[in-house]
Amino acid sequence: DSPEIKEEVLRKDDRFLTLLKDVYVESRDPPVQVKDGGGKHLPTKQEEKRLTKLGHLEALDVKKVSKGKISLVEALTLLNNHKLQPQVWTAEKIAAEYCLELHEVNSLLEFFIPFAVQEFPKETKKAITSRKPKQLT
Protein backbone atom coordinates (compact mmCIF):
# COMPACT_ATOMS: atom_id res chain seq x y z
CA ASP A 1 0.00 0.00 0.00
CA SER A 2 2.96 2.32 0.31
CA PRO A 3 3.59 4.66 -2.63
CA GLU A 4 7.35 3.92 -2.68
CA ILE A 5 6.73 0.22 -3.39
CA LYS A 6 4.18 1.01 -6.11
CA GLU A 7 6.61 3.44 -7.73
CA GLU A 8 9.43 0.87 -7.60
CA VAL A 9 7.26 -1.80 -9.20
CA LEU A 10 6.07 0.45 -12.03
CA ARG A 11 9.49 1.98 -12.74
CA LYS A 12 11.35 0.67 -15.80
CA ASP A 13 14.99 -0.13 -15.35
CA ASP A 14 16.94 0.77 -18.51
CA ARG A 15 19.85 -1.48 -17.62
CA PHE A 16 17.60 -4.55 -17.42
CA LEU A 17 15.83 -3.59 -20.64
CA THR A 18 19.13 -3.44 -22.57
CA LEU A 19 20.15 -6.82 -21.15
CA LEU A 20 16.77 -8.26 -22.12
CA LYS A 21 17.19 -7.04 -25.71
CA ASP A 22 20.46 -8.96 -25.96
CA VAL A 23 18.82 -12.26 -24.98
CA TYR A 24 18.33 -14.62 -27.94
CA VAL A 25 16.63 -17.98 -27.53
CA GLU A 26 17.08 -20.65 -30.15
CA SER A 27 14.95 -23.78 -29.94
CA ARG A 28 15.19 -27.00 -31.90
CA ASP A 29 12.86 -29.98 -31.75
CA PRO A 30 14.46 -33.36 -31.17
CA PRO A 31 14.54 -35.59 -34.25
CA VAL A 32 11.29 -37.48 -34.78
CA GLN A 33 11.54 -41.22 -34.30
CA VAL A 34 9.06 -43.38 -36.18
CA LYS A 35 7.95 -46.44 -34.26
CA ASP A 36 7.89 -49.72 -36.12
CA GLY A 37 4.26 -50.76 -36.58
CA GLY A 38 5.09 -54.44 -36.89
CA GLY A 39 4.77 -54.51 -40.66
CA LYS A 40 1.30 -52.99 -40.69
CA HIS A 41 0.73 -50.16 -43.12
CA LEU A 42 -1.27 -47.11 -42.25
CA PRO A 43 -4.49 -46.81 -44.22
CA THR A 44 -4.24 -44.59 -47.23
CA LYS A 45 -6.68 -41.83 -47.96
CA GLN A 46 -7.33 -43.24 -51.43
CA GLU A 47 -9.12 -46.42 -50.40
CA GLU A 48 -11.09 -48.19 -53.06
CA LYS A 49 -14.79 -47.37 -52.63
CA ARG A 50 -17.95 -48.92 -53.99
CA LEU A 51 -21.50 -47.61 -54.29
CA THR A 52 -23.99 -49.03 -51.81
CA LYS A 53 -26.79 -51.35 -52.95
CA LEU A 54 -29.76 -49.96 -51.05
CA GLY A 55 -32.62 -49.71 -53.52
CA HIS A 56 -35.59 -47.85 -51.99
CA LEU A 57 -33.71 -47.32 -48.67
CA GLU A 58 -31.08 -45.15 -50.34
CA ALA A 59 -31.95 -41.99 -48.38
CA LEU A 60 -31.37 -43.73 -45.04
CA ASP A 61 -27.69 -44.51 -45.39
CA VAL A 62 -24.30 -43.46 -46.77
CA LYS A 63 -23.74 -43.50 -50.53
CA LYS A 64 -20.21 -45.00 -50.68
CA VAL A 65 -18.35 -47.46 -48.47
CA SER A 66 -14.87 -48.97 -48.63
CA LYS A 67 -14.50 -52.30 -50.36
CA GLY A 68 -14.58 -55.09 -47.81
CA LYS A 69 -17.07 -53.19 -45.62
CA ILE A 70 -20.84 -52.76 -45.61
CA SER A 71 -23.18 -50.10 -44.30
CA LEU A 72 -25.71 -50.74 -41.55
CA VAL A 73 -28.70 -50.73 -43.91
CA GLU A 74 -26.88 -53.11 -46.26
CA ALA A 75 -26.12 -55.46 -43.36
CA LEU A 76 -29.78 -55.55 -42.32
CA THR A 77 -30.87 -56.03 -45.94
CA LEU A 78 -28.55 -58.95 -46.63
CA LEU A 79 -29.39 -60.62 -43.31
CA ASN A 80 -33.10 -60.34 -44.08
CA ASN A 81 -32.62 -61.61 -47.65
CA HIS A 82 -30.68 -64.61 -46.34
CA LYS A 83 -33.35 -65.32 -43.73
CA LEU A 84 -36.19 -65.18 -46.28
CA GLN A 85 -34.41 -67.01 -49.12
CA PRO A 86 -31.34 -68.91 -47.80
CA GLN A 87 -31.01 -71.06 -50.93
CA VAL A 88 -30.85 -67.95 -53.18
CA TRP A 89 -28.84 -65.66 -50.90
CA THR A 90 -25.98 -67.97 -49.99
CA ALA A 91 -22.81 -66.80 -48.26
CA GLU A 92 -20.91 -67.02 -51.55
CA LYS A 93 -23.44 -64.85 -53.39
CA ILE A 94 -23.47 -62.27 -50.58
CA ALA A 95 -19.65 -62.15 -50.52
CA ALA A 96 -19.52 -61.58 -54.28
CA GLU A 97 -22.38 -59.04 -54.28
CA TYR A 98 -20.99 -56.87 -51.47
CA CYS A 99 -17.21 -57.38 -52.07
CA LEU A 100 -16.68 -59.16 -48.73
CA GLU A 101 -14.49 -62.03 -47.55
CA LEU A 102 -16.32 -65.38 -47.43
CA HIS A 103 -15.27 -66.19 -43.84
CA GLU A 104 -16.55 -62.79 -42.68
CA VAL A 105 -19.91 -63.39 -44.37
CA ASN A 106 -20.14 -66.84 -42.75
CA SER A 107 -19.48 -65.26 -39.34
CA LEU A 108 -22.04 -62.54 -40.03
CA LEU A 109 -24.72 -65.07 -40.97
CA GLU A 110 -23.89 -67.25 -37.97
CA PHE A 111 -23.83 -64.63 -35.22
CA PHE A 112 -26.30 -61.97 -36.40
CA ILE A 113 -29.95 -62.89 -36.82
CA PRO A 114 -32.60 -60.27 -37.61
CA PHE A 115 -35.62 -60.04 -35.33
CA ALA A 116 -38.87 -61.71 -36.29
CA VAL A 117 -42.06 -59.74 -35.67
CA GLN A 118 -44.93 -61.84 -34.35
CA GLU A 119 -48.51 -60.70 -33.86
CA PHE A 120 -50.75 -62.07 -31.15
CA PRO A 121 -54.03 -63.69 -32.27
CA LYS A 122 -57.08 -61.46 -32.11
CA GLU A 123 -58.83 -63.85 -29.71
CA THR A 124 -56.30 -62.95 -27.04
CA LYS A 125 -57.07 -59.25 -27.42
CA LYS A 126 -60.82 -59.89 -27.16
CA ALA A 127 -60.41 -61.84 -23.96
CA ILE A 128 -58.53 -58.97 -22.37
CA THR A 129 -60.91 -56.19 -23.43
CA SER A 130 -64.16 -58.09 -22.71
CA ARG A 131 -63.70 -58.00 -18.93
CA LYS A 132 -65.82 -55.44 -17.16
CA PRO A 133 -64.07 -53.21 -14.66
CA LYS A 134 -65.15 -53.55 -11.07
CA GLN A 135 -67.16 -50.68 -9.68
CA LEU A 136 -66.28 -49.21 -6.33
CA THR A 137 -69.12 -48.72 -3.89
From TrEMBL:
UniProt cross-references to Pfam families, sorted A to Z: UPF0240
InterPro entries: NDUFAF4
One GO term (biological process): mitochondrial respiratory chain complex I assembly
Domain of life of the source: Eukaryota
GO cellular component, one term: mitochondrion
Similarity-based family: Belongs to the NDUFAF4 family.
Subunit structure: Binds calmodulin. Interacts with NDUFAF3.
Protein name: NADH dehydrogenase [ubiquinone] 1 alpha subcomplex assembly factor 4
Organism (species): Dicaeum eximium
Gene that produces this protein: Ndufaf4
